Structure formats: C-alpha cells, structure tokens
C-alpha cells in the first residue's frame, strides 16, 4: 500500500511542477496582453466568461464545473493582479453573502472595500474610489431588492456582470444548543427566507432585523442567548457555533447580484441586457412597448415594476432581455421601444452568469 501511495504522490508532485510552470507562463502572456492594450479596463467580464464557458465545455471530470470555474477564476484574478489590484466595493462587513458573491466573481479580492449600505457601494464606484461594485438585485424566494433597482435608474454606472449565488443559511450562536436561544438576529430577507424553520424550531425566540447577516453574527457573538442567521464564513470570523445548517425554507434559494462599473462591456456570445422603461399614459401602452421584442425575436427573461416616485400610481418597468445591445435584433428592438416609450435607459449588457 505504501508503494502505491508513493507512486500516486510522486505523480502529483510532478503534475504540480508542470502546473506551476504553465500557470506562470499564462501569467506572462496575460501581462504582455496588458501592456499591448496600453490602458483601458483590466477586468474584462466578456473575455473571462468566454474562457470559463470553454473550460466547462472541455471539462471531462472528475472535478465538477463549479470547481473548474472557481480554480480558473482564481488563476485569472492573480494574473490581473500583476497589472493592478482591483478595488471591489460590496455591502459589508466581511462575512456577508455580498462579499461571498464578490469573491466568487473576481476569484478572490485583493483590495476589498466594505460598505455600510447599497447606496455607498454605488457612491464608491461613481466617485472612482472603487473600480467595481457588487450589489444584490433579487432573490429567488423574496423577489427584487428595491433599493438597488431605485439606484440603477439614477446612476451613470453600467451593469457589467451578474452573479448567481446559492444562499444557504445557518443558525449560529455562542450557545451549544438551540434550547438556549431566546433571540435571533439577521437581515430582514434572511429572516423571511427562514420563516417556516424558525416557526418550527424556535417559535418563542424574538426576531430582530439588522443591516446584514455579518452584523447579526457580530451581535450574536456579544450576547448570551442570542443567535444569528448567517453564512459559515461568518461563523468562522466571529467564532460562533453552528447549531443548524441550511435552514432556508427553499433549498434552491439563490440570490442574484450585479457587478457595477463605469464602462460598458463588449459582447461575449451569451449575454443579457437590462433596461428601465416608462410607458406613456395611453391605452395599450404596455403591449405596444413589448411588441418590438417579439417582432425582432428577442426573448424577455424578466419584467419588474417599481413606483416611479414622480406621481401617484405611476410606475417604471425593469426588463431583462437575452442578447447584447449591439446585437442587430436587440439594437432594432430597442430603437423601436424608444419611439414608443416615454423613457428608456439601457442599464448595461453583460455576460450571462457562469456557474
């Protein structure tokens, strides 16, 4: 047995040496490309999406697609860092799902910027203090994040990427048993996503909504009898015990995040475009607004209404469609919509999320 183990370990050592040489060779090419570009964005979401999709298609296992993309995102992140460290703003503190989403998209954060609110994430990118921002926009259980949608209507920033993060909630506490929990802290959406579990397992515990799950974990670490609904990373950061895992009511619970930047993104071959539209106050306005999509064979994947805040019972609509705004059919559809709507703003075209 020891001889067989040694053979495998010797092979692993040899492969590791090859990997080291190849990764450094890749980094050298990436640095040369950076110099040839002579400025411009270092992070190219469309190019990275193309690379990841190609590798997922080529993958024969045993590593799953999620592991392959995580490995190569980290490789690309470290190659980018040879040119410049990117500052990425997200809703903090450390230990939030926003930080987890940012880490997933960028392959790790060399210069993370924790923000106290979604508003601050927008401000940091708009002011140039951060290169990119990551904000939640919708949850599969609880729906849209209204504040993000409201800010998108006014910002000059572009959406340059999206992240889909499977969200698993855990009950964390100083206590060693659920019986000692009298109070539960968490973000309001997380409390809602675990509503039935809390009713069944902690029906008498007080529930307190706080600004983030990481803040909930911090509070739970300072109070006897308190617990938090948060990530396992938050448990590590605040030295809390995990009393229950995956307590979300819907096991498919997923949150979608957007990546914000001050620049547009080229087409990747599999893209999505987000718009905000206001209709004219005439009969059939909504049907007229959507007809160009059907006419030009453009698929709509989302339609969300929000109060326009310009008059009582007036609304604007957030629309996601398949394709890039420079695609011929999408470009034609948008031109026709602009003629029919009272207001149209393209929020960005960006690669569809890669696993």
UniProtKB/TrEMBL annotation:
Q: GO biological process: what's one of them?
A: chorismate metabolic process
Which chain positions carry the site (Essential for prephenate dehydratase activity)? Answer: 255
Provide the Chorismate mutase domain boundaries.
1-87
- ACT domain location is 274-351
Q: Can you provide one Gene Ontology molecular function annotated for this UniProt record? A: prephenate dehydratase activity
**What pathway, per the record?**
Metabolic intermediate biosynthesis; prephenate biosynthesis; prephenate from chorismate: step 1/1; Amino-acid biosynthesis; L-phenylalanine biosynthesis; phenylpyruvate from prephenate: step 1/1
Primary place of residence? cytoplasm
Q: Which GO terms describe its cellular component?
A: cytoplasm
Quote the catalytic activity from the record.
prephenate + H(+) = 3-phenylpyruvate + CO2 + H2O; chorismate = prephenate
One Pfam family hit: PDT
According to the UniProt entry, the coiled-coil residues are: none
Q: What are the alphabetically sorted keywords of the record?
A: Amino-acid biosynthesis, Aromatic amino acid biosynthesis, Cytoplasm, Isomerase, Lyase, Multifunctional enzyme, Phenylalanine biosynthesis
Enzyme Commission code: 4.2.1.51, 5.4.99.5
- Provide the Prephenate dehydratase domain boundaries: 87-262
Subcellular location(s) of the protein: Cytoplasm
**Cytoplasm among keywords:** yes
InterPro entries xref list: ACT-like_dom_sf, ACT_dom, Chor_mutase/pphenate_deHydtase, Chorismate_II_sf, CM_dom_sf, CM_II_prokaryot, G/b/e-P-prot_chorismate_mutase, Preph_deHydtase
Q: What does this protein do?
A: Catalyzes the Claisen rearrangement of chorismate to prephenate and the decarboxylation/dehydration of prephenate to phenylpyruvate.
The protein's name in its UniProt record:
Bifunctional chorismate mutase/prephenate dehydratase
| Organism of origin | Candidatus Methylopumilus turicensis
């Amino acid at each position: 047995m020891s001889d067989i183990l040694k053979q495998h370990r010797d092979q692993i050592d040899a492969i590791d040496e090859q990997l080291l040489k190849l990764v450094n060779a890749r980094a050298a090419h990436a640095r040369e490309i950076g110099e040839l570009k002579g400025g411009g964005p270092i992070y190219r979401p469309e190019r990275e999406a193309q690379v990841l999709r190609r590798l997922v298609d080529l993958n024969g296992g045993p590593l799953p697609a999620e592991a392959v993309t995580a490995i190569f995102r980290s490789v690309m992140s470290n190659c980018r860092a040879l040119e410049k460290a990117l500052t990425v703003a997200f809703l903090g503190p450390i230990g939030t799902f926003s930080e987890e989403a940012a880490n997933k998209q960028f392959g790790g954060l060399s210069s993370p910027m924790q923000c106290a609110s979604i508003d601050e994430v927008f401000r940091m990118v708009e002011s140039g203090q951060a290169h990119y921002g990551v904000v939640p926009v919708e949850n599969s259980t609880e729906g849209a994040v209204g504040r993000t949608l409201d800010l998108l209507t006014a910002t000059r920033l572009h959406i340059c990427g999206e992240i889909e993060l499977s969200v698993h909630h855990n009950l964390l506490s100083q206590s060693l048993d659920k019986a000692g929990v009298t109070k539960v802290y968490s973000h309001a959406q997380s409390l809602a996503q675990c509503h039935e579990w809390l009713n069944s397992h902690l029906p008498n515990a007080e529930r307190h909504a706080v600004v983030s799950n990481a803040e909930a974990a911090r509070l739970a670490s300072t109070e006897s009898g308190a617990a938090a609904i948060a990530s396992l990373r938050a448990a590590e950061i605040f030295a809390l015990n995990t009393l229950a895992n995956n307590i979300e009511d819907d096991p498919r619970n997923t949150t979608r995040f957007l990546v914000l930047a001050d620049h547009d993104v080229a087409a990747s071959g599999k893209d999505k475009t987000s718009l905000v539209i206001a209709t004219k106050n005439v009969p059939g306005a909504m049907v007229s607004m959507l007809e160009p999509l059907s006419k030009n064979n453009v698929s709509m994947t989302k339609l969300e209404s929000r109060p326009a805040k310009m008059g009582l019972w007036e609304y604007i609509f957030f629309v996601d469609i398949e394709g890039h705004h420079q695609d011929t059919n999408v470009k034609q559809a948008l031109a026709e919509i602009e003629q029919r709507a009272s207001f149209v703003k393209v929020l960005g075209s960006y690669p569809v999320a890669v696993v």
